[in-house]
Amino acid sequence: TPPTVSAIVKDLIERDIVQEIGKGDSSGGKKPILLRINSKAAYMIAVDLGGENGIRVALIDLSYNIVNEKFGPKIESLNSQKLKNALSVILKDFIKEINIPKEKIVSICIGVPGIIDLKLKKVTVAPYLNWEISLDDLTLKEIGIPIALENDVNLMALGEKTKGIAQKIDNFVFVGERTGIGAGIIINRKLYKGANNAAGEAGYLLIDPKYAPKNSRDYGCLEKLASYKIIVEKTKEKTGKNIRVIDVFKMAAEGDSV
Q1: Does one domain contain both 10 and 78?
Q2: pTM for this prediction
Q3: Which of 82, 191, 215, 223 is positioned for an S-S bond with 227, CB 3.0–4.6 A?
Q4: Dist. CA 148–CA 141, nearest whole Å
Q5: Are 104 and 42 in contact (CB under 8 A)?
Q6: CATH number, domain with residue 243
């Protein structure tokens, strides 16, 4: 009802989450009051573990703008304990550097290249990383901010739906070429995870039987043929150069036959 809406808006204004920016044109009655979200009212920290350049930590405001960011070590070389230590150090340092009151940071979301068991709050399958890690391991109580885990490509799909090229698309599949190959599936504007939260593991598509995985921890067939690690390794063999996956993409865009 209008009174309920007014009460909610008043509360948001008092908490400085919503701000009045003037009055709009009248359609016959009183001029409406125009409102906007105060993007600086609260923040979240996003952590990406699946990038080529190592751990990426970013501060995001309520308008989804990246306010600040920091990079850490590559996770392929870390066991679960070293990963926990690295995350603890980089998050503590980052929170000090951004100089924002901790109470304004409402959550930390960690994007992980693997399958997550929501009941156990645990990454259960991450073939490239050779570890299992639980949310409890990453609680980092000394930081004092709630932490959530989600598959990294699922988060990328949600990002495209929220602020990217898929804002007006109700159903789509986002394929991510990262540590492995995965897909984020959006159906009826919502993220689809499947019965065991494993929907979208495109890296396990059976392209050639001789590359079939021997067990759930083995690389998937498609990943053995087309993951960025494989692409980079094969390109290094042909060129003799120490290159990154972004260099391979640039070469392809320029028509390089390699």
Answers
A1: no
A2: 0.81
A3: 223
A4: 13
A5: yes
A6: 3.30.420.40
- Domain containing 167 equals 157-253
Q: Are 94 and 133 in contact (CB under 8 A)?
A: no
Q: What does residue 205 show for φ and ψ, rounded to 5 degrees?
A: -60, 135
**In this structure, are 47 and 122 located in the same domain?**
yes
Q: Are 17 and 23 in contact (CB under 8 A)?
A: no
- Examine residue 32 and state whether it is found in any structural domain, yes or no: yes
Number of independent structural domains in the chain: 3
The tens digit of pLDDT for each residue in 23-41 reads 888 777 788 888 899 999 9
Say yes or no: 120 and 163 in one domain. Answer: no
Query: Any idea of the CA torsion for 168, 150, 196, 173, to the nearest 10 degrees?
Result: 30
Cα distance between residue 64 and residue 95, in whole Å: 18
- Rounded Cα distance between 159 and 150, Å, is 13
User: Per residue in 216-251, pLDDT tens?
Assistant: 555 567 777 777 778 888 888 888 888 887 888 888
Q: Report the C-alpha gap between 246 and 257 in whole angstroms.
A: 16
Domain assignment present for 258: no
Q: Which residue has tokens 């073939």? A: 127
